């Protein structure tokens, strides 16, 4: 886990924090967030940030997606350890996944504060229409990808560590 404090609010994602989290030499001058996906059944808060720096050729993306844990304390309690799964996946497993997925620049969590933060590639130009039914080819492609993902981790030590076990539901 990084020594950078995991932000629990978009206002914590400031130029100095982002510079440290991305381990960049670039001088980030501003971070401008825009809330996206609100009310679309995400179990967290999702933002697109615009990143400005002094050197435009520094290799930083112009925009990125920031995903933070839900600010609903009841939901955080219900999700339990499941709250950390996506960050843990991107931090620890995604390098072993040979399927297309967004580049992840930062992923971490704090089990005490229950903060979760993921900064990933903005794939906004690949949006699809979630209101229409997927085609049979889309479904077949997805099933092949899931099978490939499962095969890659079959009996792997990392899945025996417990954090991927089913999350017990309350009640």
List the helices and strands and how they pair.
Elements: H1 15-21, E1 28-36, E2 44-53, E3 63-69, H2 73-79, H3 85-93, E4 104-110, E5 115-121, H4 136-153
Antiparallel strand pairs: 1-2, 2-3, 3-5, 4-5
What can be said about this structure in brief?
By secondary structure, the chain is of the alpha+beta class. 24% of the residues lie in helices and 23% in strands.
Explain what this protein looks like in three dimensions.
Strand 1 and strand 2 form a beta hairpin. This protein has a five-stranded antiparallel sheet with strand order 1-2-3-5-4, sandwiched between helices. The mean pLDDT is 85. The chain has helices at residues 15-21, 73-79, 85-93, 136-153; strands at 28-36, 44-53, 63-69, 104-110, 115-121. The protein is an alpha+beta fold and 171 residues long. It has four helices and five strands.
The general outline is: globular
Largest sheet: number of strands, sense, barrel closure: 5 strands, antiparallel
* Uncertain parts: none
Q: What string, H for helix and E for strand, traces the elements in order?
A: HEEEHHEEH
Give the termini separation.
33 Å
- What's the number of helices? 4
Strand order of the largest sheet: 1-2-3-5-4
